[in-house]
Design brief:
The chain is about 35% helix and about 25% strand. It is α+β, with helices and mostly antiparallel strands. The chain folds into 2 domains: about 130 residues, Fructose-1,6-Bisphosphatase, subunit A, domain 1 (Fructose-1,6-Bisphosphatase, Chain A, domain 1, 2-Layer Sandwich), CATH 3.30.540; about 120 residues, D-Maltodextrin-Binding Protein, domain 2 (3-Layer(aba) Sandwich). The strands form 3 sheets. The protein has a 7-stranded mixed β-sheet with strand order 3-4-5-6-7-8-9, with helices on both faces. A 5-stranded mixed β-sheet has the order 11-10-12-14-13, with helices on both faces. It starts with a helix and ends in a 5-residue tail after the last helix.
């Protein structure tokens, strides 16, 4: 299964590279407020789904652009064919393909591919996580005031901006610095790789989370929802190296208390 996930992620990445060189903004459509979709998204999802369906015709595939008809298996693939579409549209080099597999509620494996850097992040439950074949490990940072954090803004749910600003303000005061890069799957992988120490975001979708959650966990990290529970696939995520988790999650929970 992990070999198929890798093939699928790379097939999507090859598609994105082909479109990236010649993308024009007049080829971009809006699915909703501030929510772009391009022909690259659709073609990448078609390629990813094709690889998965040919190997596992009975598996369910859920993709950001619609996926394919439901299968009969307990296995479900969550695919984001272009995580970071806004970056892609504006020529910002931070986007990826994310392919995750779950059985029931349990994420099993994930492959996240950054085609511009040719970086392949892979994780498999109980077998560890790697970047281009080299084992990954989260950072050793044990203090929030020494931590580099990452986040994403709720651009589809601007009604929650006040709570987000509160969390951003509090963590900006208590951390070393914060980055907003624009692709949640890669953000999770960067925490897994020790490039950042923590990440939080509200309003994500399962295809943003499924692959990165396994990669992070297998690299020694911790991921929860804003309440500190295991409901992170619903979209509110705090992900850390584990050592700063309680401190960071407590601040985020406080900021979003009225929404939880």
């Amino acid at each position: 299964m992990i070999e198929v996930a890798i093939r699928a992620a790379k097939a999507g990445g090859e598609t994105l590279l082909r479109y990236h060189a010649n993308l024009r903004r007049d080829q971009v459509a809006l699915k909703g407020p501030n929510d772009f979709v391009t022909e690259a998204d659709r073609e990448s999802e078609r390629r990813v789904s094709e690889v998965l369906r040919s190997a596992f015709p009975d598996h369910v595939i859920t993709g950001e652009e619609g996926g394919t008809p439901a299968g009969s298996s307990a296995y479900r693939w969550f695919i984001d064919p272009l995580d970071g579409t806004t970056n892609f549209v504006y020529g910002i080099p931070f986007f990826c393909v994310s392919v995750g597999l779950a059985r029931g509620r349990d994420p099993l494996l994930g492959a996240v591919y950054d085609p511009l850097r040719d970086e392949l992040f892979v994780g498999e439950r109980g077998r560890g996580a790697t970047l281009n074949g080299i084992p990954l490990r989260v950072s050793a940072c044990a203090r929030l005031d020494e931590a580099l954090l990452m986040t994403g803004f709720p651009f589809k749910q601007v009604g929650h901006a006040d709570a987000y600003v509160a969390s951003l303000s509090a963590l900006l005061r208590q951390s070393r610095s914060i980055r907003r890069c624009g692709a949640a799957a890669l953000d999770l992988c960067y925490v897994a790789a020790g490039r950042a120490d923590g990440f939080w975001e509200w309003g994500l979708s399962p295809w943003d989370i499924a692959a990165g959650a396994v990669i992070l966990s297998e690299a020694g990290g911790r991921i929860t929802d804003f309440r500190g529970g295991d409901g992170y696939m619903k979209g509110d995520v705090v992900a850390t190296n584990g050592r700063i988790h309680e401190a960071m999650a407590g601040i985020v929970q406080g900021a979003f208390a009225r929404l939880l």
